[in-house]
Structures are given as structure tokens and as C-alpha cells.
Design a protein that fits this description.
The radius of gyration is 20 Å and the shape is globular. Helix 2 packs parallel to helix 4 (131-141), helix 4 (131-141) crosses helix 5 (149-163) and helix 5 crosses helix 7. The chain is α/β, with parallel strands linked by helices. It has ten helices and eight strands. Helix 2 links the parallel strand 5 and strand 6 (95-101). The chain has two domains: 1-142, Zincin-like (2-Layer Sandwich), CATH 3.30.2010; 144-244, no CATH class. This is Basic secretory family protein. Pfam families: BSP.
């Protein structure tokens, strides 16, 4: 819990929680129930951050979780999530959860309104904080059943490309076009195709595709409705001149 307005809070090595603002979150904790909190690692436990009607609950289960990474992924929620909500899904929840899991061997995954991150991934890739940008888009998407996985992941990586804050430092970028690719490859391959479509065909196509997917009105004909061409015809145009 917060004591006054100096960013001081009590957080044991177990799981007591505190409610703080993003501004206070940038201040190093000064008091702990047992000793002094390291400036380099985040205590194990749960903290709730609130600002302007948005709430992020972060549960850290890794005693070695980086304070720098924590600050960056918290900042991504409070700066990018409102932008994505406004553009893609104004009715989506403003309250989400992050979980830092030392037993998860992947990178990150989203289930409902909870994003679980691999502690090991962040330890080995501390610059790759825009994993959070990709994952919070999945909460914004809120697609339910029957949506093409390749398009879901492609849109999330397109969002990482457009809204990411640290992609260059993380060594993350969209791949150059290759004849071996296909729009159904998902993730960055599909994201680059979508970026090309936004730049060269229809600036609102990703917004409109997202709406169709959320409303369960997406079909193969959606591409024709939005652009006058099938997705295969659009891919052929892209392959002929793939420069963004």
C-alpha cells in the first residue's frame, strides 16, 4: 500500500499488493518489510497501477525480474493501450493483468485480459519490451472463434511495427519480401503485407479488417469489399512491387 505521496510502499517478498500511479511507479521503493529493495530487481508480488481510468495489475513471480523492463512494459500499457483502444475497439476493458512467469518457456501469450510473459525471455532479451505492444493488441482484438490465426497475429505485429517503442534496439523489424513467403505466414510476414496495403491501397484497411473480425462479418469477400480485389490479387500486386 502507498504511504503518503512519496512513492513509498510496503511489499513483502510474498505477495502483498500496492496501488500506485505510473508516475509513482518510476520512483524507487524506499521501504520494505524485510530489508531494502534492490534497485535492479522487482520484488515478488502484485502491484496495481491506475491512471485516467485505466488499471494494470502486475503479478511478478520472478525474484530476478528487471526493474527497467518492468517500467517499460508498464509504460507501454498506459501510453499505447489507450491509443489502440481508441482506434480499434473503444468498448474493450480498461483493466488488464500482466503475469511474469519463471516457469513459462515461450515468449508471451494472452488469455482473456491477462498477458503472461516468460521471465527467462526478458532476462535474455531485455530490449524486447514491445512483446507487450503485440500482446496488449490481442486484448484489444477480443476476437471470438473462427478468425484466421494468420490475420490475427499479422495485425498484432502490424501494431507492434506502427506503435512499438523499442523495436530497433531489440533488433526487431519487418522482413524483406521473399518469393517463398505467403500472406498466411502470419506474424511479421503478414504484418509487412498489411503495412504495404495501408501505405499503397487503403489507409484504413487494418482498422476495417479488425472491425469485421470483431463483428464476425469477416469473409474472403471482405478484401474485395475494402479494396476491389481478392487477397490473392492483392498479394500478387505486393509481390510485383513490395517496397513500403
Amino acid at each position: 500500500m502507498i504511504i503518503g505521496t512519496l512513492g513509498i510502499f510496503l511489499l513483502s517478498a510474498c505477495s502483498k499488493s500496492a496501488i500506485i500511479s505510473p508516475e509513482e511507479a518510476s520512483i524507487q521503493p524506499e521501504t520494505k518489510t524485510e530489508g531494502v529493495v534492490s534497485a535492479q530487481a522487482v520484488p515478488v508480488g502484485t502491484v496495481i497501477y491506475t491512471s485516467n481510468g485505466y488499471q494494470l495489475t502486475l503479478t511478478n513471480n520472478d525474484p530476478n525480474f528487471s526493474e527497467t523492463v518492468r517500467q517499460k512494459i508498464v509504460d507501454i500499457f498506459f501510453t499505447k493501450y489507450p491509443q489502440l483502444l481508441t482506434r480499434f475497439n473503444p468498448g474493450v476493458t480498461k483493466s488488464i493483468k500482466y503475469v511474469i512467469d519463471p516457469n513459462y518457456n515461450g515468449v508471451a501469450y494472452t488469455s482473456g485480459t491477462t498477458v503472461t510473459y516468460s521471465a527467462a525471455w526478458f532476462q535474455n532479451n531485455p530490449q524486447d519490451v514491445d512483446v507487450a505492444t503485440h500482446e496488449i493488441m490481442h486484448i484489444i482484438q477480443a476476437y471470438t472463434g473462427g478468425t484466421p490465426g494468420w490475420l490475427t497475429e499479422g495485425i498484432a505485429d502490424l501494431v507492434r511495427y506502427r506503435y512499438g517503442v523499442n523495436n530497433a534496439a531489440a533488433g526487431w523489424s519487418l522482413p524483406a519480401y521473399s518469393s517463398s513467403q505467403h500472406y498466411t505466414n502470419a506474424y511479421r510476414v503478414t504484418a509487412r503485407f498489411l503495412a504495404w496495403l495501408e501505405n499503397r491501397v487503403n489507409a484504413s484497411i487494418v482498422t476495417n479488417l479488425n472491425t469485421a473480425l470483431r463483428n464476425k462479418t469477416y469473409t474472403a469477400n471482405t478484401w474485395v469489399t475494402l479494396t476491389g480485389k481478392t487477397v490473392d490479387q492483392l498479394w500478387a500486386d505486393y509481390a510485383a512491387n513490395p517496397a513500403l
